[in-house]
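Prompt: For my understanding, could you write out one protein's sequence and backbone structure tokens?
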Amino acid sequence: INAYAFSKTCSDTIAQDIYHNKPMLLTLLRPFNTYGLWHWDGVIARFTKCLLQAMPVPMQGTGIQARDFVFVSDVVRAYELAIKNCGGATIEIGTGIATTVNDVARLVADKLGVELRVKVLPAREKDFYVQFADLSTARHLLGFEPQVTLSEGLDIYLDWLKRNHTVLPAFTNG
């Protein structure tokens, strides 16, 4: 387990301890790889920055690692549903679909109409190869269904970047 995953596990453990020892309702939402408007970090943002600057995309390992990429509006909607409908649960939020990092890089490059060049970096130690949300609890307790596919979300995100070109210099230099 890496430090990031360990910190998330510790946070969840503390929150669940509070839930079990105090008279309060506590809901933990675990959003997977969130991307979208005003999002400057994460795999999709990093790939987009590189591709907009005609730089190679940094790929840690083989790129066959698969992740669940969820658009920010779906995450916001999940929080709204949790506030209204739930207490005392841990709920994974995503699309329930695993997409390889290679496929994400290709999709972003295709949508930008640029050549994809990859810079292969060493694989992350103890990285999970496949991670995606189990939506069964989100569906059951919240009535949550993701509304935005990865392709649609990328269209929205990239269109927003183009329309808000004044943020591009800060975005690409960050």
Notes: The longest helix spans residues 3-21. The radius of gyration is 18 Å.
